[in-house]
Every structure is written in structure tokens, then in C-alpha cells.
Design a protein that fits this description.
Shape: elongated
Radius of gyration: 22 Å
Strand order of the largest sheet: 3-4-11-10-9-8-7
Oligomer: single chain
Low-confidence stretches: 1-10
Helix content: 25-40%
Strand content: 15-25%
Number of domains: 2
Order of helices and strands: HEEEEEEHEEEHHEEEHEHHHH
Mean pLDDT: 94
Largest sheet: 7 strands, antiparallel
Length: 334
């Protein structure tokens, strides 16, 4: 790598580290590591006690879960917005990627004992045993950690076998024992300590295992603009201007909107913010939506629709906005 490239990579990693540290301190932000169909998420309540390491590392831990991020020099940050299926809403995030070769995990297809978890976030968990449950995802190893003798026996008997086999006792044993879930990627881990949700997704740290989505072999939704050759390894979700991390609505937050727009200007897809600026300028000028030249790319069309939804949240009485929404923000406008 040339000296100039090394300097740029270092500067990028430094900026990403500063961003992550800021959001680790913000209880409104959340994080995830996973593949399509197998994911761990870290959330915490505003009043929930949580600790950051004294050495300034990119980690946090609460009584319900924890995470640790270990950045690499080749990390790439991609800020993005996607359209929600719920009218007037949108999602946003920053996905951290590495080149495919560096991001690919072991892809074990059966239960595999990995030994004690020396990398556990909390020292008291270092002696518990870690088992990869064999989901075969390309970019994460989905594991459980336990010191329960009964569960350890069940997992050892199931060595190398699929937990989805009809005769496998593993899934039922996991639901009964509620071991820690530990999801490992090429930039770190998320650990979930609270019980597995049986009927609904619990608030706070949790995991999802969805076999149908896993079978797709995809690492991420097609709506997330990850360039070819890169693989998502960790995701940050800064505060959304209109909903909290669990999707509950709240009054529009202009500070959160401006903060995420600044991330899009730095790390968003090429031309994305230019399209948002263009459609907002057209609305402000009093132009008719029929005269608007729509973007050719799907990313550009998404940008225009998200910008209009954001304008509606910020200024619902904006003159002419209803006509723009009816013209551009329709499912057929994709």
C-alpha cells in the first residue's frame, strides 16, 4: 500500500472510531452484527447503567448484553437510508465493511465446540464454553456460551450436526437453558445475556435466527448499498429523527436529522445527498412535481422519497408538499 493510501486509511479508521465512541455513549443509538437471518442487536434504555472500558476501547457492557468493536485499517463506512414500509417513515444506519476475503468467517454447518471464551467482554465469562451452533453464515459465527453441564452435554452430543434437523434437540435445549448468545464478526462481537424472546422481541439486546432468510445466503438486505467486493461486518444505527430504536414514534428531532445528513455527506452513496438537496430545492421553489426530472438510479429515487418524508415530518404544512408526496412517494415510484 502506498504511503498516501496508508495515511488515508488511517485517517478514515480514526474518524470511524471517533464516530463509534460518540454513539457508544449515546443510549439512543444501537448496534448490530449479523447476516440476513442471523443477527445480534445491542440496545439500552436511557436510564440503564452501562460501562465503557477505562482504556478507551470501543466497547460497552450492561447487565443485559455488551459489544466490542475492533477496527481494522481496511474498514469502510457506508451511511445509508432506506424506505420503511410504514408510510412516512424511513430507516438509517452506518454499515462497517471489510473486503470479502477478510470478512469471511468459518461457515461451520454443524455444532462445533470452540473451547473457553477468552475473548469474552466480562472477565467472569472467560471460563464458560463457546459453541458455534453451525448456521453457516458467510460473515458471522453465531455462537452460544454456557457453563451449564446439561446444555454442554446436549451440544457435545450434537457435534457436527445441523440444529435444524427434525431430530435435533438443540433448539429446544437452547430455548430452555437461555445461554449467552455471542455473535462474532470480522470487526468484533455482540453478546446477549438476557433470556431468549419466546413470543415477541424483547427490548434491549437480543438475537434473531430466521432459517428461511438464512437459506438465501445473503449477508444483508438488497436495500443496503454495500459495494461489490465488500462485506458488512458491524452496523451502527444513530438516533432516528422520528422513532426510537424499537420503532416507537416520537416528535421530530431536527438535531438527529442534521447529524445523520452530515454522515451521508461524508460516507453516503455517490450523489445521494445531491439528489436530496435537488428535490428539496424544487419543492422550496414552488415547482410542480410533474416538471421534476426523476433520478435514473434506484438510489437517487430513494433519496428523493426519503427527503420528502423527512420534509413532511419536519414541516407538514409545507406548501405544495402533498402534491409532491402523491407524485413521487408511491410504491410504483421505486
Amino acid at each position: 500500500m502506498a504511503a498516501s493510501s496508508r495515511t488515508a486509511a488511517t485517517g478514515n479508521a480514526t474518524a470511524i472510531a471517533a464516530l463509534l465512541s460518540q454513539h457508544l455513549d449515546d443510549a439512543r443509538s444501537s448496534f448490530s452484527v449479523g447476516s440476513l437471518g442471523a443477527i445480534a442487536e445491542f440496545h439500552r434504555a436511557p436510564d440503564e447503567p452501562a460501562e465503557r472500558p477505562r482504556d478507551g476501547g470501543l466497547a460497552i457492557v450492561s447487565e443485559r448484553g455488551g459489544l466490542r468493536i475492533e477496527l481494522a485499517a481496511d474498514v469502510t463506512a457506508i451511511a445509508y437510508e432506506t424506505l420503511s414500509g410504514r408510510r412516512g417513515r424511513w430507516q438509517q444506519g452506518v454499515v462497517l465493511c471489510r473486503p470479502r476475503a477478510e470478512a469471511t468467517r468459518q461457515r461451520r454447518a454443524g455444532v462445533t465446540e470452540l473451547g473457553t471464551d477468552a475473548g469474552a467482554i466480562r472477565e467472569r465469562d472467560h471460563d464458560a464454553l463457546l459453541f458455534d451452533i453451525g448456521l453457516g453464515a458467510r460473515n458471522v459465527d453465531f455462537c452460544v456460551r454456557t457453563a451449564d453441564p446439561g446444555l454442554i452435554r446436549t451440544l457435545r452430543r450434537a457435534a457436527d450436526a445441523s440444529i435444524f434437523a427434525p431430530e435435533s434437540p438443540v433448539m429446544a435445549a437452547l430455548m430452555e437453558a437461555n445461554p449467552h448468545r455471542v455473535v462474532l464478526g470480522a470487526l468484533g462481537r455482540i453478546e446477549v445475556y438476557q433470556a431468549i424472546g419466546r413470543e415477541r422481541t424483547p427490548e434491549g439486546p437480543h438475537t434473531h435466527v430466521l432459517p428461511k432468510l438464512l437459506r438465501s445466503g445473503r449477508t444483508h438486505s438488497a436495500n443496503i448499498p454495500v459495494p461489490g467486493g465488500l462485506t458488512p461486518c458491524f452496523s451502527l444505527y444513530p438516533p432516528n429523527p422520528i422513532v426510537d430504536a424499537m420503532g416507537h414514534p416520537h416528535p421530530f428531532d431536527p438535531g438527529a436529522a442534521a447529524a445523520f445528513d452530515s454522515l451521508l455527506r461524508r460516507w453516503g452513496p455517490p450523489g445521494y445527498m445531491a439528489e436530496k438537496d435537488r428535490v428539496l430545492a424544487a419543492v422550496a421553489s414552488g415547482a410542480e412535481p410533474g416538471a421534476y426530472r426523476r433520478a435514473v438510479s434506484r438510489s437517487g429515487r430513494t433519496a428523493a422519497r426519503v427527503a420528502l418524508r423527512q420534509l413532511a415530518a419536519r414541516d407538514p404544512r409545507c406548501p405544495g408538499l402533498d402534491a409532491w408526496l402523491k407524485t413521487l412517494d408511491r410504491p410504483s415510484a421505486r
